[in-house]
Amino acid sequence: MKLISFIIPSRNNLKYLKQAYESIRKNTLYPHEICIADDASTDGTMEQVLVWMKRDKNIKLHINKGPERLGHTILYDTLVNEYATHERIMIFHADMYLCPHADEEIDKYLEPGKVVSLTRIEPPLHPEGPEKIIEDFGIEPEEFKEKKLLKYVEEFRKGKNGRDITNGIFAPWAIYKEDFQEINGHDPLYAPQSKEDSDIFNRFKLQGYEFIQTWRGFV
């Protein structure tokens, strides 16, 4: 297993960030690096991450003291270029929950010149799409049905669902750091956050990178 640097900007999202952090630590067997950017939060994000860092040596923290937010577009690249120490990085949202075996699925398919996405399981908040699974295991952390989600994922992974991988790219996605830097990362034109995904995905495609979505690794 080649280790991954998880790249997680967050702004006033602490209750979700806690869940994201805990899921990475308890649902993986390897000491992956977690790079967090606190984007001028006022909800205690910085203080909580500093507490984690006292017991977890594999956390890196970037602090934007504000008062203005920088946005994900800028902070993804700051974390990748200035903090991530592993050759593999994963763009991860602060409100995601990493399911068991997801890192193993990334390890199975990720190579230079490829971008590997996990499959999202999400409640019916947004329109349905072929790239995700709509199942309601709760929206807020306090109503999250974790055991039911884990059972669902375990049964889905065991079943024969007609596909292991498809062609696609969606968050969360993993890539080699060198490949990310080869196309100069996100364009600050889209800061603080607007259409940056479409732009960088198009540039990945123009560069000839292969897109893989695994249907055995989930958030």
TrEMBL record:
CDD domains: Glyco_tranf_GTA_type (cd00761)
Pfam families: Glycos_transf_2
Signal peptide interval: none
Domain Glycosyltransferase 2-like residue range list: 5-120
Protein name in UniProt: Glycosyltransferase 2-like domain-containing protein
